[in-house]
């Protein structure tokens, strides 16, 4: 299992379009991918789950991966978050 925490920098938070991109990226991997925010955890391969979290600007959230390609999944999602100016790694 691997995980990384991020802080949202996008003005509109994780709304429909970026949520769809994140779900699409997560679905490329065999590993389980979880999005944890607001004291809830959802399957990141579910658009309804991701949208239900209501992640706004300056919020923190964690991506957790578990499975045979967990490292690749976490890196790909990290790269997407940074490339699309959605979030930064929060330490």
Specify the structural class.
alpha+beta
Secondary structure: number of strands: 5
The residue fraction in helices comes out at 25-40%
What distance separates the N and C termini?
18 Å
> Strand order across the biggest sheet?
3-2-4-1-5
Q: State the shape.
A: globular
For CATH, the homologous superfamily is named as HPr-like
Tell me which oligomeric state these chains represent: single chain
Radius of gyration: 11 Å
CATH topology: Histidine-containing Protein, Chain: A
- As residue ranges, the low-confidence spans are none
Order of helices and strands: EHEEHEHE
Q: Overall pLDDT, averaged?
A: 97
Count of domain modules:
1
Short note summarizing the structure:
With 91 residues, this protein is an alpha+beta fold. It is built from three helices and five strands. Helix 1 (16-26) packs antiparallel against helix 3.
Question: Can you describe this structure?
Answer:
This protein has a single domain, classed as Histidine-containing Protein, Chain: A, CATH 3.30.1340. The protein is 34% helix and 30% strand. Strands 3-2-4-1-5 form a five-stranded antiparallel β-sheet, with helices on one face. Strand 2 and strand 3 form a beta hairpin. The longest helix has 14 residues.
